[in-house]
Write a structure and sequence with these properties.
- This protein is an alpha/beta fold.
- The protein has two domains: 3-123 and 293-314, NAD(P)-binding Rossmann-like Domain (Rossmann fold), CATH 3.40.50; 127-287 and 323-340, 2-Layer Sandwich (Dihydrodipicolinate Reductase, domain 2).
- It has ten helices and 15 strands.
- The strands form two sheets. Strands 14-13-12-11-7-10-9-8-15 form a nine-stranded mixed beta sheet, with helices on one face. A six-stranded parallel beta sheet has the order 3-2-1-4-5-6, with helices on both faces.
- Helix 2 links the parallel strand 2 and strand 3 (53-55).
- Helix 1 crosses helix 9 (291-308), helix 4 (79-88) packs parallel to helix 5 and helix 8 packs across helix 10 (316-335).
- The mean pLDDT is 97.
């Protein structure tokens, strides 16, 4: 069965999704490209695929009988209404992160998918990065023993990444700043590596360096996992330079009782127990991977789950755990307290 796809939102991230469908012609065909703000972007996207129609309203896509699944690359404030309507129409959904604006919306999306027997997958592509899969394997094999602590760090300058007026600068449309738009990646990845988070604390601010930006662009938070592991994070959306060169432009340091894994100047591992890693920090053979490769892998996984009926690795139900951490982080910042993840 060829799965007929509609791409909703033809801006920046949709190009990586399109690559995924171009590499999965054995499974799917893109039949509709829709953009509500810039019809030319939809035409440009449609040019990548044979016989793809161009629309400017997601509601028109929902009622199409020749569409089996939606790939939602729209701003977060539209994720829930589109995904719920799609499920009720019997259509599968791959939705970009963050899953939704609120926990309530995310739960409604998951419930609608389950009630209608459709696949709901969230675009958490970092789980599909080859390097992260190798790190996951090392952790599962016990290479560094019981994980004790993890540090993550990300430095970007958002006003240099997006044009003025982009939805990412509006909390009403984005749901939040660095936590909702960027830390969401690593929060989800850390759940994949280490399991669920028990409680959090968080300090956040707005630097004023990104112009009319009404949410946080500076964040420092702590995570306590159910396993007892402690996580520390620093995120800045107003960084002039990246101070620590890493394999992914985002620092990751994992300390275990028998070694550590980090990605400074490439991925490295040290283990007191595994002989081949015991002579000091050993650089792992992880060639640089273009960003789009992990998104393409994510797209293929989505299509395979539709065909097999399996739950996606990053299913809507699973991603409620990631949404719950973000909700707790925002509550911790607002109340100045340590907050349990619900």
């Amino acid at each position: 069965m060829t799965i007929r796809i509609a791409i909703l939102g033809c801006g920046k991230i949709s190009g990586a999704h399109a690559l995924g469908y171009q590499q999965a012609t054995d499974l799917a065909e893109v039949v509709v490209c829709c953009d509500e703000w810039n019809e030319q972007l939809a035409h440009d996207m449609a040019d990548r695929f044979k016989a793809a129609d161009v629309l400017t309203s997601w509601q028109e896509v929902i009622v199409r009988e020749d569409v089996d699944a939606l790939d939602i690359c729209m701003p977060p404030y539209l994720h829930a209404p589109i995904a719920i309507a799609a499920a009720e129409a019997g259509k599968h959904v791959l939705v970009e992160k963050p899953m939704a604006m609120t926990m309530a919306q995310a739960r409604e999306m998951a419930a609608a998918s389950e009630a209608n027997g459709t696949v709901l997958m969230v675009g958490q592509n970092q789980r599909f990065m080859a390097a992260h899969r190798q790190v996951k394997a090392l952790l599962d094999e016990g290479t560094i023993g019981r994980p004790l602590a993890v540090r993550i760090d990300c430095n970007q300058f958002v006003k240099h990444m997006y044009p003025p007026g982009n939805w990412i600068f509006s909390k009403e449309k984005s749901g939040g700043g660095m936590i909702m738009q960027t830390a969401v990646h690593k929060l989800d990845l850390l759940r994949y590596f280490f399991g669920e988070v028990r409680r959090v604390s968080n300090f956040q601010a707005n630097t004023g360096l990104n112009g009319p930006y009404d949410t946080e662009d500076l964040v420092s938070f702590l995570l306590e996992f159910e396993s007892g592991l402690i996580g520390q994070a620093f995120y800045l959306f107003a960084a002039h330079k990246v101070p620590i060169p890493t394999a992914t432009n985002e620092l990751t340091i994992i300390n275990g009782e028998k070694g550590l894994i980090h990605n400074v100047l490439g991925w490295h591992v040290y283990s007191t127990d595994v002989e081949k890693y015991s002579g000091g920090l050993t650089r792992l053979d992880m060639p640089p991977e273009p960003y789009g490769h992990s998104v393409a892998a994510e797209v293929r996984h989505f299509l395979e789950c539709i065909q097999s009926g399996a739950d996606p690795l990053t299913s809507g139900r699973d991603n409620l755990g990631t949404m719950a951490i973000m909700a707790a982080l925002y509550e911790a910042a607002e109340t100045g307290t340590v907050v349990d993840v619900q």
